[in-house]
Amino acid sequence: MEELLFGGSALVVILGVAVILLLLWLVPVQLWITALASGVYVPLTTLIGMRLRKVTPSAIIRPLISATKAGLRLNTRDLEAHYLAGGKVGNVVNALISADKANIDLDFKRAAAIDLAGRDVLEAVQVSVNLKVIQTPRVAAVAKDGIQLIATARVTVRANIHRLVGGAGEETILARVGEGIVSTIGSAESHKAVLENPNRISKTVLEKGLDSGTAFEILSIDIADVDVGKNIGAELQTDQAEADKRVAQARAEERAGDGGGRGTGEAGAGGGDAGACGGGRGVPVGEPEYRERRAPADDPSRQSPAGTGDRRIIGLTPALD
């Protein structure tokens, strides 16, 4: 009997310890006391509900304490909803505190939307306060005189909180600035004009409103460096001359080939005609061959009636082989 009582008592003790541990896990008493001491009252049932909803109570209560100490009024319901949506509650609360101290109009709804959009809302607030400088890569462009210029620029921007959701990022800013540099250099009559006044690029690019539709506001564009590159115009002319030369050579070879073919054809035709003529004057087979017999040099009939000086043919003499 005593053994049963001892075994039952041990079981009760074990169950009691398990219940106490479960209660300590469900109810973060230390966190509840910390919140209460910081002036943030959170019911124990709320903390238990967070545990049951698989929400880490410290991820909600500690940011809530920081916001309350900074003079912001937030509630656990909004923070818990943002946590369940996959947001960074601590980052959002810190951004709200920084925006409030910098007199930037930013509420929890907008900050939560920026955070859920994948942007760092705290960094955005910091860029709104501390300006950010973006350096463009080397941009090559050709002036009208054919000389290539390679320029780099530094763009000073400030984050636009109201356009962070749906606004373009730094890549768009760099692409638009590069396009403006290329168009400005390309419209210059001479590369010397650009080298003499690099600020012309900055003014032209700023006037185009390149920050439209982006999450930033461009404050200034400063040309950091301009280098002279290749003589693209001369290279193009050289390449064109070489191409024209090759075309002319090809045409000359083609004409030479056509002339040789015609000459060979004419020579063949002439040989055929000569053969035909010779065949017509040839001596028939079996008949004697006759040769022309001309008058002697002292013969009066030597002179031709036409006065050509040739001796007249006075007869034919059979040829002796």
Mean pLDDT: 78
Structural class: alpha+beta
Distance between the termini: 168 Å
As a whole number of angstroms, the C-alpha radius of gyration is 53 Å
Number of strands: 6
For the biggest sheet, the summary is:
4 strands, antiparallel
* Poorly predicted parts: 274-285, 306-314
Percent of sequence in beta strands? 5-15%
- The share of residues in helices is 55-70%
Shape: elongated
Helical element count? 12
- The topology string of helices and strands comes to HHHHHHHHEEEHHHEHEE
In short:
By secondary structure, this protein is of the alpha+beta class. The protein has helices at residues 2-26, 29-37, 44-52, 57-69, 76-84, 89-101, 108-116, 121-129, 170-186, 191-196, 199-206, 232-281, and strands at 132-135, 139-142, 147-159, 216-231, 290-294, 313-318. Among the domains are: 22-128, no CATH class; 132-234, Band 7 domain (Tetrahydropterin Synthase, Chain A), CATH 3.30.479.30.
